[in-house]
């Protein structure tokens, strides 16, 4: 990321709605779909020419961690908000859908006669599963471990804003420092052979969130960078292709090994810079009024459904893997990928319309009144 020091310009006005930077909403869909195709590849089987790009699609989680920090910083920087109001908004945003999808996932486990352990299940509903090794895969809904991390991010977010306000003149330095600390953390944790610390532990994953926060503040402050949008997309694609080459070179072709220096671990940890480039490049193009290919009504709708898509798709693929014999025919695998991904998308749309959106709308005004700024007061991004 090269800072354009000579051109600090004011941030362009954007419409005061939840899609104030609409391309980021569109990107959410592609990140969620990356996770969906990762599950398809893992639980249905590989497809020549496609699996190569989604083999390490778990990177979508890293994208969401960075994006979460960026969007929250964009929405709340220089906007006094009492912590109880902020925390209630976040609860309203994630918890209703989380509870419903966790209950659905438990239903799938019952159908499979494979209920998870009681401690892990209770830990899931308390959003504690990322804090205990081996709980991530054993809870009520395995992908929801990321919400355990997000809950921690939300808890420390007001403190991050205080630190950023105190060091306002040194925000760029803090961003570079956060990226440097990530590299050092990877080296230290890798040397200790502790993959869980890198992959799951909320305190270390918070570095990815912090990078997003700092970038969001800098953009809100009017800072711009010379980042080519097309090259940012190419960097993300090239990174995923490079991970496959990494696994061939370092891991002997083994795709999913917990060696901290493996391609599997790097896929989640070292993806932060390339996703940061893409997020900033897309946001800047929106603020400048330039096209990104991500702002159509269809893309925005798919982006709104992406949270539900992320939470529901794994249980659908899990049920397929349990009840269906391995599919050897490539054509049938392609059809299975399409059918299961389509079913996941339909389920996500229904969950958004029936649970996520109405529950959030109701809860946001239930205790603190209408806490969203009036039109023209603040340009909102969907949180």
Automatic annotation (TrEMBL):
GO terms for molecular function: acyltransferase activity. Residues 22-352 form the Acyltransferase domain. The keyword Manganese does not apply. It comes from the Bacteria. Coiled coil: none annotated. Keywords: Acyltransferase, Membrane, Transferase, Transmembrane, Transmembrane helix. Pfam families: Acyl_transf_3. The chain crosses the membrane at residues 29-54, 60-77, 97-119, 144-164, 171-189, 201-219, 231-249, 261-281, 302-320, 332-352. This is Acyltransferase.
């Amino acid at each position: 990321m090269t800072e354009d020091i000579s051109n600090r310009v004011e941030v362009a006005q954007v419409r005061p709605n939840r899609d104030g930077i609409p391309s980021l909403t569109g990107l959410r869909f592609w990140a969620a779909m990356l996770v969906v195709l990762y599950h398809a590849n893992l639980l249905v089987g590989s497809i020549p020419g496609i699996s190569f790009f989604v083999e390490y699609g778990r990177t979508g989680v890293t994208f969401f961690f960075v994006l979460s920090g960026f969007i929250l910083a964009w929405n709340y920087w220089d906007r006094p908000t009492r912590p109880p109001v902020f925390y209630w908004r976040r609860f309203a945003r994630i918890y209703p859908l989380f509870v419903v999808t966790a209950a659905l996932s438990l239903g799938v486990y019952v159908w499979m006669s494979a209920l998870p352990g009681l401690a892990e299940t209770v830990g899931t509903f308390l959003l504690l599963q990322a804090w205990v090794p081996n709980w991530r895969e054993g809870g009520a809904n395995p992908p929801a471990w990321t919400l355990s991390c997000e809950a921690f991010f939300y808890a420390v977010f007001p403190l991050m804003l205080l630190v950023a306000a105190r060091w306002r003149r040194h925000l760029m330095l803090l961003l570079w420092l956060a990226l440097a600390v990530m590299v050092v953390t990877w080296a230290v944790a890798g040397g200790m052979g502790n993959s869980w610390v890198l992959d799951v532990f909320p305190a270390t994953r918070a570095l990815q969130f912090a990078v997003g926060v700092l970038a969001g503040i800098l953009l809100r402050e009017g800072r711009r960078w010379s980042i080519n949008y097309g090259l940012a997309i190419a960097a993300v694609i090239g990174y995923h292709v490079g991970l496959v080459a990494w696994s061939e070179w370092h891991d002997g072709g083994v795709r999913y090994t917990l060696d901290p220096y493996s391609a599997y671990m790097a896929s989640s940890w070292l993806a932060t810079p390339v996703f940061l480039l893409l997020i900033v490049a897309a946001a800047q193009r929106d603020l400048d009024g330039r096209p990104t290919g991500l702002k159509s009504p269809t893309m925005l709708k798919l982006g709104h459904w992406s949270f539900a898509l992320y939470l529901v798709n794994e249980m659908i693929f899990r049920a397929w893997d349990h009840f269906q014999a391995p599919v050897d025919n490539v054509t049938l695998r392609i059809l299975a990928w399409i059918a299961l991904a389509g079913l996941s998308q339909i389920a996500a749309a229904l969950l958004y319309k029936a649970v996520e959106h109405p529950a959030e709308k109701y809860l946001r005004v239930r205790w603190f009144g209408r806490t969203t700024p009036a039109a023209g007061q603040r340009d909102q991004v969907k949180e």
